[in-house]
Each structure stands twice: as C-alpha cells, then as structure tokens.
Amino acid sequence: MFTFDEVQKQDPEVYKTLIGEMRRELEGVELIASENYVTPAVLQALGSHFTNKYSEGYPGRRYYAGQKFTDQVETIAIERAKALFGCDHANVQASSGAAANIAVYTAWMEIGDTILGMDLTHGGHLTHGAPVTHMAKFYNFVRYKMKDVETGEIDYEGLREVAKKEKPKIILAGFSAFPRTIDYAAIKSIADDVGAIAMADMAHIAGLIAAGVLRNPFDDGFEVFTTTTHKTLRGPRGALIMSKGTVGNPLKAPEKTIENLPTLIDRSIFPGLQGGPHMHQTAAIAVALGEAQKPEFKAYSQQILKNAKHMAQQFMEKGCKLVTNGTDNHLMVMDCVKSFGINGKQTEEIWEHININTSKSTIPDDENPPYKPSGVRIGTPAMTTRGMKEPEIEKLVDFMMKAIEIRNDDAALDTLKGEVQEFCCSYPVPAIDPAAWET
Fold first, then answer.
1. Which of the residues are catalytic?
2. Dihedral angle over CA of 369, 372, 377, 383, nearest 10
3. What gap in Å lies between CA 78 and CA 216, rounded to an integer?
4. What are phi and psi for residue 229, nearest 5 degrees?
5. Are 85 and 242 in contact (CB under 8 A)?
6. Lowest CB count within 10 Å: 23, 53, 192, 225, which one?
7. Could you report the per-residue pLDDT of 383-414, keeping only the tens digit for each?
8. 344-359, pLDDT tens digit by residue?
9. What is the CATH number of domain 295-429?
10. Alpha-carbon gap, residue 323 to 326, rounded angstroms
11. What's the CATH number of domain 46-292, 3.40.50.720, 3.40.50.300, 3.40.640.10, 3.40.50.11310?
C-alpha cells in the first residue's frame, strides 16, 4: 500500500491531490478504453531509483558511466517485448505512443512523403494525420474509411485504389476508436503492391495481441508495430517500437532498407527525437511485459473481450445505437445523438457525475466538432483489472442508463452516485487501500 508519508510531511498540498486521486479511482470506475490500473509491482518499479539515472544511448553504447543496471533492465524489457510479439528488434525508449509513431515516420520518410491511414472520425488516431498536428505539416496524409459503418467493414478495394494513386511510403493500420478487426493480410498485400511498408499502431490492443487473443500483424508480414504500454498491456505510460530486420550500429547512419529498419528507428529515437530515456519507466515496462508473459494475463485478456461483447449487447438491448453494432475487441463507440438525443460531451458529463468515466468520441463522418462530438467511447480493460465480469457489466449498464433517464435531476443523480460509489468500493484497485485516507 502506498502511503506517501514523506510527501505528506514535506508537501501537504501535493499530498492531498495524491490521496484525492486514489479515492477517485476507488469510488468510481474507468470505462475509458485507453486507461487501466497498474499492478503494485509496476508502480514500485516506476517509483524506483532508476529515476536518478541519465542513460543517453542504448545498452552497451551509453554516453555516461554507471550503466551496469540500466543496461540490464533495458535489455530485459527488449527481450521480453521480442518474445511476446515475435519480432527481431524492439525499442523501449519512446516516451509516448505519439513519439513512437513520429519516430517511425522520420526514420522511413522524407518531408512531403505520403502516409495512408484510417480517417479520424472512422476510428483513426490523432497521430495518423489529424490536421491539427505538426506531422500533418511535414507529411502528406491520405485516409481510408469503413465501407459499411453498420458492420465495420473497411473498404479495402477503395484503400487499394487510393494507394495506387497516392503512392504512400507507409500504409498504417491502427485505431483509437474502431470496434472491429483489421484484415492485416489485405493491408500488407496493398503495401507490397505499391512499394510501401506496412505499419501497425496497436496501442489499444497490444495486450490482447501479446496474450494471443487477437491476431498479431507480424504474422501477416508487417514490418513495423508500435504500441503504448499503458492500455491493454497494463504497464506505465510509455511505448514500444518493434520491427523486423537486422540490428546495426545506431551511431552510423545506414541506407533506408527494410533490413536496416531497426537501426533507422533507434537513430530516429536517439539522437533524433529524444535525449536520455526515462529508466524508471523502462523498468516498469519490463515488469509489465513480464506480467504479460504469465498464463493469468491471457485469462485476463479473454475476460476483457467477454466483458466488451457483453456490455455492447446490453446497451443494444436497451435501445442504444453502437457504431458497427457491436465489438470484436475491448471497446465500443456509442452514437449518443441517436441513442439519447444528446451529444457525446453531454453524455460523458452525465456519467462522470455518477463516477463512471468514459470518453467523448467522434462517430463516422461526424457532423459535430471533436470537442462536442456525437459519440462516446467505452472500454473494458480497467474494470476487468478490478475483477468485474458479466454480472457487474449489467449493473454498470443499469447505472448508466438510469443516469441518462434522470439527467435533469441533480439530487437524483447525487443519490445514484452514492450507489455507484458503494458498488465500486467492493472491487479493489491495485495498490490502493482506503486506510490511506481514513487515518
């Protein structure tokens, strides 16, 4: 149990926020698809003495002395990532998923080159070419969409025609709000036809892939796989970049070939984008990857999928409209305008009032702006970490639907919030003990 006793003595103002966050997490539930709760072991590694060490470079090639144990822990993380995902090389230093994607772009592309990725409103991610990002100023992003939003089927023939016309250097498979599966083999075939590399941004489902409950893009020949480590992998906030190819000397610039991709990526991270890596983060990633290698992690991942499918079914039976009418992974996207006659931001706020957290989301070809989109995204990884299963899913859906029904009655919402708090406190959050704020 984390008491933060030294912070309490030295900085009561910050201490109150730490205790407040622990209490918030216990008394509510995260249904945000990109969030999870780390284990005590991951949290301890993240707060370890590795935070003191500056380790610019890579194992065996550092710019500072005193790297015996930083080299060891980074190598452990690398080898575990390679074993889990079946790749030749893994870079564990990217500070975030955005940095990981940018590193691949800058490793393989020249300014002005083209990337083909999923449209943001159809489930793509900000880093896949949203106009508000800096990358959209440097590279030419073109987009593909679902062919049928009722099923989630992607228009692969349309994707092929766009690829032939635009000649992208990278075809990107990945999403942040797409509830179905992607045909990796089809994307790889198109990439081969136009001379592009196939890149998978699996930030949301990497844990499910590591557990073997969803397909691995490397099995269909993808050259690059990026992911965050804090979603279904249940690790600290960080990222991995994994690739096929031969590892070379990161101090020497190689030719841009598939064989040299690992070295190009390493050089793109350091010295290209970042200085010294966050070794406490690397240590925590190593712990999380070790947890993902255990049989119980597969059972956990299977339950995430069961919970998501059951939740989607519960919502649809109660008259809610879901994008693609269900899910094949850990998330679903609800059209709140069609379901409740209000937008996603309003829906998110109503559920937050009763301590159930979701995230507003665009729906395909959304006519509303991103800050007030038509939908919400709902995911099951975090609640599954707390041991919730199908019966608890039904209880949560009942809470959420009741909140919508009484949304104009603040007193009734406050009463419902109390019921949610009592319910949630029955399902422990890792490393959180209510005694921390009861004393």
1. 54, 56, 201, 228, 231, 237
2. 150
3. 18
4. -115, 0
5. yes
6. 192
7. 999 999 999 999 999 999 999 999 999 999 99
8. 999 999 999 999 999 9
9. 3.90.1150.10
10. 7
11. 3.40.640.10
